[in-house]
Amino acid sequence: MQIWLMNRIQYPLITLVFFLFVFFSILYNVEDPFFNGVTLSSKKEPLSKSSHNESLTIPRNTPVPLDKSSTCHSTVKYRGRRARWRSPVMRSGGRRELSKTCDYTSGKWVFDNTSHPLYNETDCPYMSDQVACQKYGRSDLDYQYWRWQPHNCNLKRWNSTEMWKKLRGKRLMFVGDSLNRGQWLSMVCLMQSVIPAEKQFMTQQDHLTSFRAEDYNASIEFLWAPFLVESNSDEPMGHRLPEKILRPDSNLRHSSHWIHADILVFNSYLWWRKGSVKLLWSSEENGVCEEIDGLSGMELAMDAWANWVESSVDPMKKKVFFVTMSPTHSLKQEWEPGKRGNCYGEKLPIRNQTRETNVDLPTTLMVEKVLARLGSKVSVLNITRLTAYRKDGHPSIYRKFYGILSPEELANPASYSDCIHWCLPGVSDVWNELLFQFF
Questions:
Q1: Which residue ranges does the record assign to the Trichome birefringence-like N-terminal domain (predicted)?
Q2: How far apart are CA 234 and CA 68, in angstroms?
Q3: CA 257, CA 51: separation in Å to the nearest integer?
Q4: Does the annotation count 178 as an active-site position?
Q5: Number of compact structural domains in the chain
Q6: What digits encode the pLDDT tens for the residues 259-296?
Q7: 160, 328, 380, 405: least surrounded by Cβ within 10 Å?
Q8: 421 carries an active-site annotation
Q9: Helix axes 178-191, 160-167, angle to 10 degrees
Q10: CB neighbours (10 Å) of residue 5?
Q11: By 3-state DSSP, what share of the chain in percent is helix, strand and coil, each rounded to 5?
């Protein structure tokens, strides 16, 4: 009788324990929409207290996310629609700029093999084969020794330890395309040398990559978002698609990550130069896309990004930067009229540094118009003019190419030269030196 009575008591208890176990297992494994798949460190506490205080409003009828399998069922001309936002706008004052006594956009490149480069290519364990020009055979290394010198002032000398102190307990996130990834990699290479090897960690998950310094409880991150808004090209390794489809009224996929950063550095430009894009609005249920030229598409995306900044950024709590256009050097006639070729074989900056060269003026004016309405919420990192002079700083043929080069290309090196990205150490380091002036 006692055994039977004990069994009657134990069975309900076992059942209760089992159901409690199942319930809490499900609760624990629910995916957090803000940190889905992202591992910044082995610790579970957030990098910044601000992460707890921010939230993102998710639409009730969220459309199916775009990916590389997304297609347009049909395509029509752009009908003039623009994104509408209902979020309250947080007002701000005038634009944040560096001291008026220092115009860092006006200056010259000075050869300086004493203070530059700020690190060696071989000393950065995270160096990418896309920008490791010395590794891939470039023997003229003068591109590493040029320093940007403003005309009427001096830049604060780079100091990695000081920068880490500024970043203590914070997340610095670069958001954009491969040019912004190059700036992120430059920042990592500049900063990693003062962190003990056992106290630094690099993690990558989906389109977010993070370098973390344990002693400072800080991270330097890169978020792949070439159009800023959601697109079918949001996979870092699978974006070579025949058509570019994007949602100009949705940056939820990306902003769910970047909203938790304390310092944000955005860019967008290069991908809009590749012809027209197709728009698939969130409310469109029949797969009908609208086709629009690259510049107009970029303006729509910039408006969506600016609306997010207006409604979500408190400049007292979050720093936001926008990096202006990085000029390419694919046409030699832009700096030497009448000449054919590109950046291949170039070993010196453009000498006539008073002449505006290879600058996309319509895009520049459009970006200035969008940024003008954001006031102190955004600081502009204007790298366009100083970068335009550096025809010598590109990888050219001295990088790893991930596609198979044809015999015709191999016989004509200029035909496959990369005149878009930048060797490291090099030009991208100077962008970060300018960013350092704001801290």
A1: 101-154
A2: 8
A3: 10
A4: yes
A5: 1
A6: 999 999 999 999 999 889 999 998 888 999 999 999 99
A7: 405
A8: yes
A9: 110
A10: 9
A11: 30, 15, 50
For residues 120 and 117, give the distance between their C-alpha atoms in angstroms, rounded to a whole number.
7
Contacts of 415 (CB under 8 A, 6+ apart): 408, 409
| Token representation of residue 17 | 């324990």
Active-site residue, selected from the candidate residues 92, 421, 428, 429 = 421
DSSP per residue, 267-281: ---GGGGSS-EEE--
Tokens of 54: 């921010």
pLDDT single digits (tens) 79-100: 888 876 554 555 555 555 555 5
What token pair was written down for 205?
A: 């998950």
Cross-strand bridge partners of residue 289: 75
Using an 8 Å Cβ cutoff, are 146 and 390 in contact?
A: yes
Q: Is the peptide bond before 425 cis (omega within 30 degrees of 0)?
A: yes
* Tokens 């993070």, residue located: 210
230 closest CA partner among 205, 257, 248: 248
Average pLDDT over residues 2-25: 42
328 within some domain? yes
Which candidate in 70, 178, 186, 417 is catalytic?
A: 178
Q: Which long-range contacts (CB under 8 A, 24 or more apart) does 43-49 make?
A: 46/260, 47/169, 47/170, 47/171, 47/212, 47/217, 47/218, 47/219, 48/169, 48/170, 48/171, 48/260, 48/262, 49/169
Q: Maximum Cα–Cα distance for the chain, whole Å? A: 106
SS3 readout for 78-142: CCCCCCCCCCCCCCCCCCECCCCCCCCCCEEEEECCCCCCCCCHHHCCCCCCCCCCCCCCCCCCH
- And the tokens for 344? 């291949």
Q: How many residues does the chain have?
A: 439
Q: Which tokens hold the place of 285?
A: 């249920």
Distances (CA, A) of 242 to 68, 69, 272, 276: 10, 11, 14, 11
Per-residue pLDDT reduced to its tens digit, 382-437: 999 999 999 999 999 999 998 889 999 999 999 999 999 999 999 999 999 999 99
Q: Which of 262, 303, 418, 429 is catalytic?
A: 418
Q: Nearest-CA neighbor of 367 among 315, 306, 311?
A: 306
d(CA 348, CA 392): 5
Q: Which amino acid is at 84?
A: R
Residue 248: inside a domain, yes or no? yes
Is 418 noted as a catalytic residue in this protein?
yes
Omega prior to 337 cis, within 30 of 0: no
Domain limits for position 247: 74-78+102-437
